[in-house]
Design a protein that fits this description.
100 residues; mainly alpha; 2 domains; extended; binds zinc ion
C-alpha cells in the first residue's frame, strides 16, 4: 500500500479492537483498542493473569505473603495526589507490573 506522507486521508487505519472486537478507526498505528475503557479493561485482565500466574508459580513462599492487606497501599488514598501516585508506582514496581 502506498502511503503519502502527511496526507490526512492516509493517516488513519481501520482496525478491530483487541478487547471487544469492534471495528474502529485509529489515527496512530500503535492504537490497539477502540476506547480508553477497552484499553483499561484489557490492562486489568492482563495484569490479573500475570499476577495469578506469578502467584501460582511461587505459591509455597507467597501464600501468606499475598494475603489480604499486604502491600504498601492502604485502604484510604493519600490526600496528596502526587504522593498517592508515587505509592502506586512503587507498588507496581514491587509487584513487577509494567508501568502504564
Ligand atoms: Zn473495544
Amino acid at each position: 500500500m502506498k502511503k503519502i506522507k502527511d496526507d490526512p486521508q492516509t493517516r488513519f487505519w481501520v482496525t478491530t479492537c483487541k478487547y471487544c472486537g469492534s471495528t474502529f478507526i485509529k489515527f496512530q498505528n500503535a492504537t490497539k483498542y477502540c476506547s480508553d475503557k477497552c484499553r483499561d479493561y484489557s490492562t486489568l485482565e492482563h495484569t490479573e493473569k500475570r499476577v495469578r500466574k506469578h502467584r501460582k508459580k511461587h505459591r509455597s513462599q507467597t501464600d501468606s505473603y499475598w494475603g489480604l492487606g499486604s502491600g504498601y497501599l492502604h485502604g484510604t488514598p493519600k490526600n496528596d495526589f502526587k504522593e498517592e501516585r508515587k505509592a502506586i508506582m512503587m507498588e507496581r514496581r514491587r509487584l513487577k507490573l509494567p508501568a502504564k
